[in-house]
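Narrative of activities, Objective 1.

The group set out to show that a structural description can be obtained from nothing but a protein's sequence at a throughput compatible with the screening campaign. Below is one input-output pair from the validation batch, recorded exactly as produced.
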Amino acid sequence: MSVSSRWWWRCDALPRSRSRGRGCSRSRSPLFLLAVLLTCAPLSLASKEDLPWESLRTTKLRHSRHSESFHTSYSGSHPKSVDVRDTLKNNLAVKDNHKPVFTNCSHYHPSVPEHTQPNVHIFTVKAEDKDPPDRGGKLRYQFVIASGEKPKFKIDADTGFITTSHVFDRDEPAREKETYITVRVSDNGLPQLDDVCTIKVTIEDINDNSPVFDKVSYMESVPQDLPVGKEVMRISATDIDDGNNSIVHYSLDPSYSNNTYFRIDESTGVIYLNKTIDKPANFKFELRAVVNDMGETPLYNSIILDIRVVEPNKKSPSFSNVPLDIIYLKENFSDYDFRIATIQAVSNIPEKELLFDLGVGKTEQTNKMRTFALESDGDTAYIKLGGQLDYERITDYILTVRVQNKFELAVETKINIFIEDVNDNIPVFVESRSGSVLENEPIDTPVMQVRAIDADGTSAHNQVTYTLGDNDKYFKIDPQTGNITTLVSFDREEKDFYNVKVIATDNSPSAIVPGRHNSGQKSFRIEIADKNDNQPKFTQDTYVAEAIAEDANINELVAEVVANDIDTATQVTYSIVTGNTYDAFFIENTTGKIRVNNKLDYENITQYSLTIKASDGLHDDFAMVKINIDNVNDNPPVFVQNITTTIVEESLVEGCIANVEAYDPDIADRNAPQKIVYFLVKQDQQKFLKIDNEGCLQLIEPLDRDPPNGFNRWQVLITAMDQQGSPTALRSTTEVIINLTDINDNAPYLTNAQPVVWYENQPPGAIVTLTAKDYDTEENGAPFKFSLNESASQDIRTKFHISGEQLMTLVTFDREEIKEYLIPIAISDSGLPRMTGVSILRVVIGDRNDNPMGPGHSDIFVYNYKMDGHLSDHNTWSYGYGEAPDTEIGRVYVTDPDDWDLPDKQFSWLPSYAEKSPYFDVQRETGMITMREGTPNGTYELIFNVTEVNEPLIPFHWVEASVNVTVKEIPEEAVDKSGSIRFINTTAEDFITPSLGGLSKKDVLRQKLSLIFNTSLDNVDVFTVYSHNSATHDRTLDVRFSAHGSPYYAAEKLNSLASNNQNELESLLNMQIYMISIDECIIEKLKCKTGSCRNKLVKSNVPLSVYTNLTSFVGVSATVDVDCSCKNVQILECFNGGTPFSDRCECPEGLTGPRCEITSVGFHGDGWALYPTVPSCEESFLSLRITPGISDGLIFYLGPLVHNELLNVQDFMSLELIKGYPVLLINYGSGTTRIEHKHVKVDDGQSHLIEISFVKTSIEMFVDQCKMSSCMNLAAPTGLNEFLNVNGPLQLGGANVNLERLGHLYGWKYVPTNAGFVGCISNLTFNDETYNLGQPSDSKNIDSLCQTSMAKAVSFGIDTNFLVAILVCVAILLILLLAVVVHKRRSEGWPEKEFDDIRENIINYEDEGGGEGDAGYDLQVLRKMYDPPEKDQLQTLAPTMTDAMMPGDISGFLDDKKHVIDRDPDTNPFDDVRHYAYEGDGNTTGSLSSLASCTDEGDLKFNYLSSFGPRFRKLADMYGEVPSDEDESQAPGEESWC
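Output recorded for this entry:
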């Protein structure tokens, strides 16, 4: 600090001479004081306006619900002498921390309309602080809220901008008419000071409530002789809004015809008779009363009034005594037996008692809560208290009393009750805050303000005054405002806080505790704050930071400095003063941590010397920080120059064709070894060029200048790496341009568009002008010389010759002899030496229709695909629904040597077949046959009439042509589970065309697949034949096939069996197989550059068609596309009998998978199971649980099934056990990585969790979730490939291929074992998708629930004899249990016979109308179907049976019974749903008891049923006394009918 600044500081300190010996108060000589005064004298010239003294300003606070705002602010103290500090405030450091002050607190009168939405601005509060913002004058606003209180407003902490956060409702039931908010403003000084302002916010009423009638309906009676002008009735409505919005007016709807008889008082709602009643008794007037409020936009309500006319002698009652004045009750009134009001009435007719009623309105003011009750006695009624009163809730009530006589004539009156407020609320402090005051402050310094609220509703009871309960020697409190100020000057070193008790007392005698006022108290903590009077001090004068790397990260810690300050009220802040070149560093101003701010560079600056300042706001200290920069390799090599060179193409130049030179900028001495290595960037150029570490670029093979594989200008990219190419080396790249000089090394070639057409029967002439091109430069190219090559046959030489550039014919051609010629043409260029090339020109002999046609026959096979229309499995998408639409399936074929004569032909149905083809159409001009949508399965013989004419060569004639069409429907399941093969270098036409033996390659493949799959030929379908150009081959053919026993075989099974027979299939078909199981993701990044790739089968009901002359094939459009993500979009599909429910599956007991998967499978060492493969993903996670029974064996294998030289993709992954430890092998296609876990041995018979995570840069394996470094296995993939791409199935428990042979053919470094696994595998998931292990695609010797395999694992190590003994005991227990059950059943017989629900009848009781009460039984149809015996024979059998009781009349008997029931007036219609719900009258479903409903079932005898025949045997057994299969010669039993 300079001398002048020190003197300024001392002048600034002069007014603090009373501050306990601090600042300038030390004893000084008079000479010294004189010098000080002379120094500060010029300051006295400041004008009065520059000395901003303010007197104490106090705003009285009355704590009342009706007070507008509460506030006291102190801006200073009473001046006793001139203080020059304020005049110099712009030049001096701020020493005093001023308190923020709300300058306009008492003038805030905000309001907010009810139902205002949140975030609406209401008003803004503003406070002022004399301190600068960076020295204590920055203000922040916040609300003071009680614990648990939900704020109803939001405030911007920086601006004081207040908005709503709550929707207010001024009306019932919320009654939010006003609310209070307390805003606290705090500064950023040390210590922090604040001020508060409490503001009342009024909630404005809006007209949001319609008037409400106090009754749901109004019904009154009026005598015929009622005089005009007399009161008829009263209606009443209330509006819970405020002001004009609550004032209601009444009217009668003029649209009602009888409204002229009445008028209504718009203010009171009293309805008077307006016209003499001329209506008869019991006539009813119907009126509509309308009520509206007086709001700006009035709201309406209406109600129907029913007024009944009665005889003149029927008079309405009248009140004889009602309270006329308002009744006043204090809110603490609680005498429930006291008669608040007495009402008397007279009936005006002879009647002893009247009916009184106290109305219950729709608002609390109209007794909605039944606050009042009514008791009546004869002609007198009394109103009593029915509930608790509360003035703060409801201040007045309007009660409606109604009296009614026996003629239902009534009259009403209103009683007004006002509630008086009493002092029944105690003042409550609504905030819990602490206060603070600086030490050594003068008396009367403000400390804090406290606030208490009294909830009483009137100012007579809710005015609060404050007193101190203790510490009144140190503090005083304003009784009205609650402002606490000091009585002494405090010393923090003596005591640093006080707990001050404040008592708040209201202004009237308590209604709770008689003889005293209500009061509440609370203790507040007041802290004595420290002042800043000590200098901070660094712990060291110089700090040194060694070896800071020049490539240090931004924000990296460099050093930390510490300065201590014994003052508690100040905070030390740090800053860099000097030495921070290029802003290389920054310092955290509160911690002293120095960090890197910008990139460092050793080559520019090797050391920094920073001057650091520590400041507490008034005092500073300084320290030096030296930072030494360390050199690192952060500059890539720099090439000296770019190089361009020229050489002759196709020549192997010896030595260096170019010398590349680069240096390392991190090495200061350019003459020192630069340690640079070079390499070529482009891999395709590395077979032609090489470069050594001296920068010598040499040729390995000659370079070609000419197309298609050469370039006249080669760009060679060369990379230089420093540090001898170490892992941390930096690199840069340059280019070397090699220009090639041309030599004549390319022969010219023909460029004519092919084929060239020359029509038959045309006289000799020029066919075409020959054109050619040469890849060499112009001097080695044209002009060209053309001639027939010596390889041309004699036939060609006799028919063609070349004249100059013209190809000429020598004869007239006939297309029916030869359709085309391939002419070898020799072309020579003009270079030296001359180069000659041979090109083939294809000349097609054009057809003229000069031959008549003959009859023809062709075959068409159609697969008609029926879709379900949903996402059917993990990787199958479906578009479209239903069967195939109208589809062109092939052309009508006729034999004709001419093949370009289609325009001369016309096709139509043979007349006799015109109506036999509802499913097919034929196009007249082209002969194309269209199969219509909805064609059923079957074989169709179609016969057509084909006509042809081409005068004069071909006269008009016609022939028959037959087409055999076979249509076969194939379900979606077959497509979803289909296998697939991709062939190359073939076409779809070649695949379906029959050979000389009559079979096509498609037929041969189908027959062979039936043998491979061991199923009949009819169960194998080859349904997709799709020819296209793929990304790897031009002529690609995709074939899909399915096979089934019951159900369809899974794709993994089909593809696996086909792969095992791939060589045999290729030999049999004479075709090349590129892959089995078509996978567009198999070649890394070919289709998806990101790496993630999932196959999806795209299906359509629009078929794929292949046409040839003799046969056509219409197959299913099912092609493989890619989805470049691993996200599997699928619908909810539940396995194993699970039921979809919302977004989950409800599974049968025992199934724990998320989609009811069987999550476990067991193996015995000689089996395996196949499952769907996994997609290629950027991030993959596989987990499974194993319970091994042995120490060695293959857990799973995922990879190729056969060695395919054409595809040559060798990616695989396997997991096996070796000596009880898991070993993972994984190959991304460029080398095998082996990970062996040695921490946890898993062959202990327990279940173990294995987790495998693999991405493009790392592979991890965890066992039992052990993530410690000792048990975590991590490795990097081998080679350049980054992803696992497989299309073979996932094989668990073993492998169905010879892995050792496969590994030898692919050259794998590590080969999985073929030893089978023994034990249980469960909970297998890949990327959170759970495998259904219990249902593999194919398997051998597995245990789907791990029962047998688990038993083996559990019994491992247990004595066999012990197990046998246990099993024998279990068997004995089962035998005993079975014997007990059998004995019990024999002793009990068949108890079901006792229930009548086993009785049989022909009625289905679940059908409506099938109840016993509904059906008219006709048992005639159930009799034996033979001629009935003669009447005398029947009488012989049943001599006691009358004619009326004959079984043959049972139908008539039942009909009679039914008619009796129909005529019963108490019986519902029999088809009534309500009656049907209770059908049977309580009988069980199987009961036939209604056949004799007038008697008990025990009274009936049905022995005669045994004579009905064998069909009635069961009925006779149930109802007869003697079994029907006994002596049938006995007399029938009796029957009792009612």
